[in-house]
Amino acid sequence: MSNSDYPDGILVGRAMVPWRSYPRVVTVRNGELIDITAKGMATVRDIAESGRAAEHVRSALGATLGTARAALENSAALDKDPKLPRLLSPIDLQAIKASGVTFVVSLLERVIEEQARGDKSRADALRTEILELIGMDLSELVPGSEAAMKVKAALIAKGVWSQYLEVGIGPDAEIFTKGQPMSSVGYGAEVGLHPVSSWNNPEPEVALLVTSTGAIIGATLGNDVNLRDVEGRSALLLGKAKDNNASASLGPFVRLFDGAFTLETIKQSEIALRVEGEDGFVLEGHSSMSQISRTPESLVAATLGEHHQYPDGLVLYLGTMFAPVQDRGGVGMGFTHKLGDLVTISTSELGTLSNRVNLSTKCPRWTYGSSHLLRDLAKADLL
User: Cα(52)–Cα(250) distance, rounded to whole angstroms?
Assistant: First the structure.
């Protein structure tokens, strides 16, 4: 475990501690994990909606729970010590939303998935064919622009227009529900694959913390676990491809914006991905936020506004440029997960998010929802 597992800055998250039956709101100060749960500020949602989230987390009184490093190590351990804190997803009552096809590389791979009809054995040949047909760098296009519409017309004429190209270079962004409030998992947890899938991948992303008024107040790392074969058969299967038990990972903490860390910092972030298989396979890649085709502000505006409100705020995955094509298990077969894969997503601004892959049916069941949290907080006189 390196010194970059969590960054300096104003951090907020959630943890289970051995002497409490419900999650606690925590921060990190001088390497110590501090419990800042307080009446009226007992959820990350309440802190985010206070209008002074960074100030509150910076100054809130709290009890030391031990070192942040010990909590991270316990969270990542296969056999967790029940006497030590372990981290949870750093959000609670917020909606979990995601944007898709926001990077050109991801855009092309989505088109390939669709053309392959979920058959990964056809992907390599289709990739070459589609790139030859397009014949230009789509990264130069501004979605919805006149130039983008000309490319759209040319692709329709060539017979390769796709619903993914529509949201990639068309006027409207793809925004979907990744999971329900309280369903995301955190640092060290298992992430889940639906057992029907044989072609899938991690999606290393930045996720923004957004208030009910649309203010972007912080960011964290996310793994938007994706089933390429399921979504490739039909985009109408997006819910089955994206929203499964333990399929949304976030963490390790939300870093709140302050004078030294802003949305402009996020726009220049470089996100690294490493997948280590129990079979010795290693995959590495990166995603540059500077290459996103739609601004984070525009993606938030497409999610929340006069057309749609989120009274508890939301977290929004911003999409990824990383689409793994490295062969695993045969020439032209591309990448897919194997059970036991260790997925590590990292950036200097937000730290490291680490999760191990399992089937969604084998990951711990999601049984603690919003109603359970609110009942527990009411019993503890914290609401």
Answer: 22
Residue 367: pLDDT over 50? yes
* Dihedral sign, Cα of residue 12, residue 6, residue 188, residue 63: negative
Q: Express each pLDDT in 77-99 by its tens digit.
A: 999 999 999 999 999 999 999 99
Ranking 180-184, 186-190, 306-310, 326-330 by mean pLDDT, the lowest is 326-330
DSSP 8-state class, residue 321: S
- Cα gap 158→135, rounded to integer Å: 12
3-state secondary structure of 83: coil
For residue 3, the 8-state DSSP code is T
| Cα–Cα distance for residue pair 76/56, rounded to 1 Å | 28
* Res 134: pLDDT: 60
Cα separation, 122 vs 334, whole angstroms: 10
pLDDT-derived band at 133, boundaries 50, 70, 90: low
Contacts 24+ apart (CB under 8 A), 68-71: 68/6, 68/28, 68/31, 68/32, 68/33, 69/1, 69/5, 69/31, 70/33, 71/15, 71/33
Query: Which of the 8 DSSP states describes residue 142?
Result: P
